[in-house]
Amino acid sequence: MLPPVLDEGAISPFKFWFNDKIQHGMYFRSELFHRLHTVGIEHRARLYHYACRLSRHDTVVVTANNVDCSVWVSLRSSSITALSLRSELFPPLIDVLQERPDN
Q1: Domain for residue 55, yes or no?
Q2: 28 is in which domain, residue-wise?
Q3: In a domain, 31, yes or no
Q4: CA distance 85 to 64
């Protein structure tokens, strides 16, 4: 399923403590999400591609405004739960941004 894209002004943001620091979260459709990555709007196509890859295993949402866009993963995701144990569960976004479009 393709991740929805929302206007960042239309979400309900909050902050929470996770993995020894304050994280950004949001509430959407009775689900709580963790902001995984934010990039400049010029990288929105690559971020969406990254979100599509993540959505194979997790509930994912993309938000955007005039300056940047973010990918969010459900806090119910087993990947987020395991994130406190291993930081390599999600592919580094920089690797995704550097991939060629044909990959």
Answers
A1: yes
A2: 5-88
A3: yes
A4: 29
Within a domain: 98: no
Model pTM? 0.81
Cβ atoms of residues 14 and 27 within 8 Å: yes
- pLDDT tens digit at each of 103 positions of the chain: 899 999 999 999 999 998 788 999 999 999 999 999 999 999 999 999 999 998 998 999 999 999 999 999 999 987 776 665 444 445 556 555 555 554 4
Token readout for 31 is: 């689900």
- Across the beta sheet with 12-18, the strand order is 5-7, 60-64, 68-74, 31-40, 21-28, 12-18
